[in-house]
Amino acid sequence: MDSFFDTLEARLLSLQPRPLNLPGLVLRESAVLVPLFEREGIPYILFTRRPAHLRTHANQFSFPGGGRDPEDPTPLHTALRETEEELGIERSRVRVLGMLDEVPTTTSFRIQPFVGVIPGDGQYQPSAEEVAFILEVPLASLLDPAIRRTEKRTARGTEYDVYFYTHETHEIWGATARILYNLLEHITQLPVSIPARPPSRGMG
Questions:
Q1: Three-state secondary structure string covering the chain
Q2: What is the pLDDT of residue 57?
Q3: I need a surface site. Which of 7, 84, 131, 149 has the fewest CB within 10 A?
């Protein structure tokens, strides 16, 4: 499985991620970690579901991350700090593979996504304030085109695509789905096959 992560790392490092170009629009910096891991020879991706009490994006699936604090030297520091706060995964245990394209949100953030490999032992310490549910999904499942649909939306006079991924009873959409779409585009270009797959697991 290291060969898969090595190949993905080489691709991400060879390509320049696209920054947002939205003249006149002021967006707050934020960053997320897209957590990948291997278990029994199968590559997985991890999502967290936000608690119902949050003011924004309540009950939606997301990646660990948040707004960049003044003490964060870089967006990567933000992504790793938030991952440690939300899941209890120490930043020293994350292997960062590279970056994806910047993504805007309807709540006036610009997200810089980082792709990283986390331990596959499932030993999370989720923050009850920020994480209601942890979803582990085999990457091979998300490559099935049958689980994705696209809807047209309009914001600030501009039409754009919104992606939805329906995995079992879970729906992933919004900025998280756009980040996922970008990652899967890279993965489909890799000269390696993606092993499938025992069932996904969710942890409340």
A1: CHHHHHHHHHHHHHCCCCCCCCCCCCCEEEEEEEEEEEECCEEEEEEEECCCCCCCCCCCEECCEEECCCCCCCHHHHHHHHHHHHHCCCHHHCEEEEECCCEECCCCEEEEEEEEECCCCCCCCCCCCCCCEEEEEEHHHHCCHHHEEEEEEEECCEEEEEEEEEECCEEEEHHHHHHHHHHHHHHHCCCCCCCCCCCCEEEC
A2: 57
A3: 149
